[in-house]
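Re-running D-3-phosphoglycerate dehydrogenase to confirm reproducibility after the cluster update. Everything else is unchanged from the original entry.
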Amino acid sequence: MTKQFRVKTLNAISGSGLTRFPAEIYEVGESVTSPDALLVRSAKLHDTPIPDTVLAIARAGAGTNNIPVAAMTERGVPVFNTPGANANAVKELVLAGLFIASRNLIPAARFAHELEGDDAAISKAVEAGKKQFVGFELPGKTLGVIGLGAIGVQVANAALGLGLKVIGFDPAISVDHAWNLSSEVERARTIEDVFRQADILTVHVPLIEATRGLVSTQHLAMMKHSAVILNFARAEIVDEAAVVSALDQGYLRGYVCDFPSTAVHKHPRCISLPHLGASTKEAERNCAVMAVDELRGFLEDGQVRNSVNFPEAVMERESGTHRLVIVNRNVPNMVGQVSTIVAQAGLNIANLLNRSRGEIAVTLADIDGEVAGRVLEQLTAIEGVISARAIPSKA
Ligand SMILES: NC(=O)C1=CN([C@@H]2O[C@H](COP(=O)(O)OP(=O)(O)OC[C@H]3O[C@@H](n4cnc5c(N)ncnc54)[C@H](O)[C@@H]3O)[C@@H](O)[C@H]2O)C=CC1
Ligand SMILES: O=C(O)CCC(=O)C(=O)O
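Result of re-run:
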């Protein structure tokens, strides 16, 4: 039997999230056809045809650079992400990255792994070989944090606890994140200040055009010669060729990242991990739960929470009402035209919400009565309306 909603998954999504889709009304899986929604992690959707049936896309994670967000906005499709849901997992891996770099842990472990002979021989080789892995301690060193969002703030605060000085840069820090950031974190006036002062630099910005290649030849030239760069955000935020060149010339001590590539994965001064930032049971569960709840909210009630391209639109459902969900361009008199059509159909609006963000707007209207197909057709025909659907009253 066809279910009311179909959700196609494009990556392995934690069962703790998937079981929140009620099985009576949801068909969920990799092979779902004509989906109402897509649920993804890192799957790249830029070159994948997205069926016309898709009403919403959820990214169980933070970065949405794998999704054609602008094209979805044009199509009236909200894209959701899960802010903060994997931030602790990433923070912990960044801290691991700090120690990996400061104590040369990976080459040291590799050295130990390759030791041969009996215990006496191994012990002798250990004492002879360990001097090549002498590291440095963190207290008093300066950590530069670029991007003080969910992850950057947690990294900055944790680093203070390790005795590091922290300087941070984020020209668009949110009020919530500013509240959570320790007052001991120094505020950099310019991004250049961070590059100049950091002994260790870590980037926590989204990959957008403005951040592509942000760690550039020019910025690297400002850094201390012993500096280390940590990149657990996205590969493209760092100009890898410039980093490799700085490492080869001895201008940079090391590069630790979550993104192996031909340029870095075998380089003696680079450590790359296989995109493990969010790979903890806890983060996978948090992201999946949040993403599923966001999709259910939109499909079942037209609610918009945590969208990267749509306005927040949350209105409690009036009991017994049918809900109209209209996605429209942000142009004047939309609510007037919708109200007129609904009134002409002899229907009463019990409650109404209209929210806009940039070019796009969402109108939710709770109607005392069933909305006929011809009313939806009239609503869809309004210039500027991208989609209109009616969700029947809940039993
Ligand atoms: N390695 C992994 O598995 C993971 C990687 N990530 C990456 O980390 C990024 C950040 O994640 P969150 O902290 O959760 O996102 P977030 O949205 O909470 O924070 C991003 C911050 O970057 C700031 N920002 C944007 N452009 C900037 C610029 N040019 N200079 C300075 N600050 C700038 C924003 O104002 C915002 O405060 C994600 O977009 C994703 O690419 C996120 C989770 C897991
Ligand atoms: O889902 C993952 O493993 C990657 C997480 C990530 O990169 C993100 O949340 O931006």
